[in-house]
Amino acid sequence: MLEGRRDRRAGADGVRAGGGRRTVVVALLLIAPLVFGAPAAPPAPRPSAVLFIGDGMGQAIITATRVARGGSAGRLRLDAMPYTAIARTWSAGGPVTDSAAAVTAMACGRKTVNGVLGEDATAVYGKSEGTRIESIALWAKKRGMRVGLVTTTRVTHATPAGFYAATSDRDRERAIARQAVAAPLDLLLGGGRQFFRPGPPVSGDPGWSADDAEDLETAARARGWTLAATAADLRAITTLDRPVLGLFADSHLPYEAPGGQGASPGEAPARTAPTLEEMTIWAVRSLRRGGRPFFLMVEGGRIDHAEHANWARTAIDEMAAFDRSIGAAIDRLDPKTTLVLVTADHETGGLALNGYPPEKEGIFGTTAGEEGEPPYPVLSFASGPGAGEPARDAPYAGADPRPSGITLHSAAHTGVDVPLYAWGAGAAEAHGTVDNTAVYRLLRAHLEGRRLDRAALAAP
Ligand SMILES: [Zn+2]
Fold this sequence. Notes:
460 residues, alpha/beta, three-stranded mixed β-sheet
C-alpha cells in the first residue's frame, strides 16, 4: 500500500516537472501509427504464482500468533488475504498425513501414501517405487518459467524435495540431494549442507553408505550452480543467469528466536544464514527480473519442528516470521498477474488456546480455573514431550515447553483440516472445502491462463 502511494506521488511530480516535453512525446505517438502503421500490441504478461507452505500451520497457531503479537483484534498479513478455503489433508494411507504425502498432493496433484515423495500410491514406503508424478515446479520449468524453492529446513527435507525429487522414502536425503543437483531449478535455498558433502555417513539416512565419497557441492558447481553458504554470499549474487544453490546450515536453519540461539545440534551457532523473509525477498526480486513468469515455493518449515517439541513461543516466532515473509512477497508482486496461495501440509501437535487469558503476553501464562480448581496453562498441546522433558535446545529454554495430553517423544501430526488463503490473479477460485490436491489444480489453471473446472477442483 505505502509503495503504491509513493509511486503515485512520484508520477504526479513527474508531470509537473516535464509537462512541456510530455506534450511533444504524446503528439509524436499520435502521429506514429499514420507514418509507420499501427503499433503491435504489447504481449500480455504471462501469469506467475507463489505457494507458501506453513509446515504444521493449523488454525490455532495462526490465532495464537495474532493474539501474542497484536492482541485479538490485531491483523496478521494472512488476515488481509481476500479469499479463503478449507483444505482436507488426509493421505492415501489414512486420515493423518505426513509432510511427504501432503507435499506430493499439493505439488503434484495426487494423493499418495505417507513417507513417499513425487510418486503415486502404488509406491510402498521405503520398499518399492511407485509411478513418478510431475510436480508443478518441473511442469512450469518446461514451459519456460523461472522456478525457485525456499525453505528454513534442509533443502532435502520432504516439503521442498516434493517439488523436484521422487522417492519411496523421504529419509533418503543423500539420494534426494543427488536429485537436487540434477534438478532444473533456478534457485534452491535452505539448509542441509551435510547431505552434499562427502562422507562420513549421516546417521539414520538409509540413502547414505559408509564408503560414500561423493562431493555433491563440487558436482553442483560442475553442473552450473552458483553456491552460497551465508546471507552475505546470497546478497552478493545479483543475477539468475546461473542457478543458485544456497546451503546456509549443515541441517535446518536456526530458529527465528531473538539472538539466533536455539540451533539444534549440528547447526552453526552464529546466525550467518539469511532469514526466511530475506530469502523470500531475494527470491521474488531475482525470479521476476526481466518480466519472466515464475513459480516460487516458500516453506516456513520450522513451525512444525517447534510444535513437535511443544515449544509454543518458538512456534509463534516461526509463524510470525512466515507471516512477515508472505507480506514481504505480496508487497512486491502484481495482483493482476500473480496468484499467491498460503496453506499448510497438516496441523501438528493439536495446539489449543484454553480459557480466558489477558491479551498478548497473557497467553503464555496460566488462567484461573473455576472455584476450587487450580490455574491452568493457556497454551497446551494434545500430544508431545510437554513440560516434563528438559528443553536443552529450546530458544527460550525451560520457559517454553507447554503441557501435553498424551506423552510422546515428539508430538503427532493431527488430521484436522487446514486453511487455504489466496491473493491476486485467480484467487477468487479458492473457496469452499477442497482437498490439498486442489492447490496443484489452482496453480496449474492459473499458470496456464485457463478457467478452473469447479467439479475437478472438488475431487480428491
Ligand atoms: Zn512434522
